[in-house]
Amino acid sequence: MWKFIVRRVLIMIPQLILLSILIFFLASMMPGDALSGQIDPSLDYQTIEKKREELGFNDPWYQQYGRWVSGVVQGDFGMSFRHKVEVTELLSERMTNTLWLSLLSLIITYLIAIPLGIISGRYNDRLADQFITGYTYIGFATPLFIFALLMVWFFGFHLDWFPTGGSVKPGTEPGSFAYIISKLHHMLLPALSMALIATVGTVQYLRSEIIDTKQKDFILTARAKGASESRIYNRHIFRNALLPIAAFFGYEMAGLIGGSIFVETIFSYPGMGQLFLDSINLRDYSVVTATVLLFGLAAILGSLISDIVLSLVDPRIRIK
């Protein structure tokens, strides 16, 4: 098992190097550069070029890439010209909000998806299954950003049940019980919006697993031996069908972090997604490269977690 984990971690190294190169080159293709937002645009061309030369923006790409990677390894992403603070300080605050939002979305997703998937799979082709399948089809066809807009309009503005911006009520003392409740209140609607869309894939996958497992020989044998239906489902079918769902935990988490880009912007939730889009609009070069790198890192770590869980569930994966 440890050999598999070490091998899988080693595979991450070239992935991270390739990711950093792609981000560096894509960022260099953006209009302007890190210097553009730090200088007075009314300066004459010679002064700007002199400054660019002093700061190394005219150096060959490999030298610029080496300096950037060296800073990233040491946790130095540069300075945000918009917020006038270190990018690392800015990211640590926003990353916490995004992680809590993604975790709450994941919990809601599984709380909804697992019961619906079990009911749909056990009673397939009946009325309950048709109703749940219809819900999943609607979910597949609904873009997340449109659904989030409807949610914020109906529950936020029309019913006024949830706040429509921010991550906590202003003036609440950090660490107090009221602060925690306010945090949850602000996260609940965006988390629910992401979860109701993310649920549909898990429901369909679990339904297919249960229907497929019901046809397996060991289930037919259990029925032939006179085992009760509740025992067959609880001891054999559900246990086997739920294991692959657990293996996709990492992918689900990475997907929700990526999906937070639109939801955080719609709900004005101060997380990584909102910061990313704002930084693109303002050409905040240092913040854009840092957020894209962290989103990519989250995807790679999610893949690693899923592979490790999958290897625990199915030992044949380790052999391969």
Distance between the termini: 12 Å
As for the number of domains, it is 2
> What is the overall shape?
globular
CATH third-level topology of the largest domain: MetI-like fold
Share of residues in helices: over 70%
Model description:
About 75% of the residues lie in helices and about 0% in strands. It has about 325 residues and is an all-alpha fold. The chain folds into two domains: about 15-85, no CATH class; about 90-315, MetI-like (MetI-like fold), CATH 1.10.3720.10. It has a two-stranded antiparallel ribbon with strand order 1-2. Helix 6 packs across helix 7 (about 175-215).
Set down the secondary structure blueprint.
Elements lengths: L1 H27 L16 H10 L6 H13 L5 E2 L4 E2 H36 L4 H15 L2 H15 L18 H38 L2 H8 L4 H19 L1 H18 L5 H10 L3 H29 L2 H4 L1
Antiparallel strand pairs: 1-2
Helix pairs in contact: 1-12, 4-5, 4-7, 4-10, 5-7, 6-7, 6-10, 7-9, 7-10, 9-12, 10-11, 10-12, 11-12
Membrane topology: Multi-pass membrane protein
InterPro entries: BPD_transp_1_N, MetI-like, MetI-like_sf
Organism: Sporosarcina pasteurii
